[in-house]
Amino acid sequence: MTIQYSHADLDQIASQLLTNSQYKIWLFDAPMGAGKTTLIKALVKNLGVDDVANSPTFSIVNEYLTTNGSKVFHFDLYRLKNEEEVYDIGLDEYFDQDEWCFVEWPDYARHLLSDQVHTLSIRIVDEHTRELNFE
Q1: Over the stretch 102-122, which tens digit does the pLDDT of each residue have?
Q2: Among the four given CATH numbers 3.40.50.1820, 1.10.10.10, 3.40.50.300, 1.10.600.10, the one describing domain 2-134
């Protein structure tokens, strides 16, 4: 599915994506500044998290609880240097929990994952518009 959207469309887009989701692990491929974290914030909100989601750039992972007690994990793997660091932080254990996992900069973690993931590619169309490919 390919969708063009603006910032004003984020809540609707997040709801639509979650409705069409088959898997709980989502990998975000996009250049710096394309809006990965912004879209993840909308997804987390639509899943029923009351806290405001923030980028886990320095902490690597943020954990949120939904109003029904489910967990949502938001990963930012930009600072990782190799696959060994993926194991050092126990990323495989997060993926095995059957909870929502949103992963920015997933390259070093791909080897841990089955085919049961969604890949979201975001392309900057212009200052206000993004194009999302959801597989």
Answers
A1: 999 999 988 888 889 999 999
A2: 3.40.50.300
